[in-house]
Design a protein that fits this description.
Layout lengths: L1 H38 L1 E6 L6 H14 L3 E6 L4 H11 L5 E5 L3 H9 L17 H5 L9 E3 L1 E3 L1 E6 H6 L8 H13 L5 E2 L8 H13 L3 H9 L8 H12 L13 H9 L5 E5 L3 H7 L5 E4 L12 E4 L1 E5 L6 H11 L2 H11 L2 E2 L12 H9 L3 E3 L5 H16 L6 H17 L1
Parallel strand pairs: 1-2, 1-3, 7-8, 10-13
Antiparallel strand pairs: 3-11, 4-11, 5-10, 5-12, 6-8, 6-9
Amino acid sequence: MKKNLKIFLLIAVCAMAGCCLLYIREADEKQQIHSEKKEKEKLVFLTSKRETRHIFEKIIADFNESQDEIYVEHMAVPNPEQELQIRAVQGEFPDIVEFIGAQKDDLEKYVKGGYLQNLDDFSATHCVNEHFLEKLKILNGIYVLPLSVNYRGIFYNRRMLEEEGYQIPSTYAELIDTMEQIKKAGKLPIVFADKDSWTIHQGWDAIDMSSRGSQDDLFQKVLNGDAFLYEDSIALDSTRKFLEIRKYGQKQTVNTGYDDAVKKFANGEAYMFLQGNWAYPMIKKINPDIDLLFMPFPTYHENQAKVVAKIDATLGVSASCKHSEAAGQFLDYVFSKNVSEYYADKAGAYSCINSVDVTDSYAKVFTDSISKGDFFLEEFAYESEKSTARDALFQNFVSSPQKDTEKSFLKELNDLLIQQKGD
């Protein structure tokens, strides 16, 4: 009996020892895995464009999964521009930063302040179309790499229009006629996002650029005192159209924000949406089955609308980045053919990457023109402070247009431009 008890205790002790050894081994393995994770070079990537954040989330996740040496952390904040300014002052500039547009004055501040790294020798730089790179040079160097360009125009819900017997407008007269018919049928022809003031001038630009082409020359002449917006025939006509089409929008457009306007259009509550192609990802996310057509704002004569593009998403690397080689590897990944094609497809954007073949069926007029080189690349940009004042001016104008004539509004806009030069 005692012998059996001893054997039983011996077996129990061995079992416990085995369990302890197994636990220790599992703990060691977990510690080893944890150590390996800690040894990865970490990069913080601040994204700025909320419409494409979900696209970058997928790109970042795929990159992190594809290798074991680098971990990219996605930083998404409500006000990225302000966040970047604060982090610059605090000495915590993110390793990689997405900038929106080619606002050279703002970028130049970061370059001159020593916050951005020169990318001339990065291999990803050689993937980008030289034509777009030239437009981004600051102090004779490349400090941001462009991923895509954007363009302004008008979205049409093609299926809704065609199924209900309305034609896709090819002239301004046809646009007004189509909207008039839709309005008479008791439906909403077009939706506006005037609550978010930044969207309003985009609509005016879309109208003006389709007739003019680039605004660069005009705005430069205004700055030099050689021209006045309130005497420019295209600017006056564009402002008149800008007000006229609002007769066909929802009541109190200033009560509708950008997100709500996108939802209304995506869900079929309106037939048209005056905006930029940056709205494409959100529209498709809400309604993947929507049949979209995106065209330049129609002019008085068919096939006369001009195509204007602006550099959109650009990526820069912090001068204080501790892992520049790792940042270069991430840029190589983002600017590779497959990933760039994925980004362009999901963002509905024209890619700045040489190897990417752009065939956006929803915006064929734009992409075909850019591919052929038959387009204008807009460079002028307001400084951040002045863009806020401009947006407020446009919002006040659409809120109470009866208080201002086209000429008086353009006089105020003209004066605002002059102030920018004065600073």
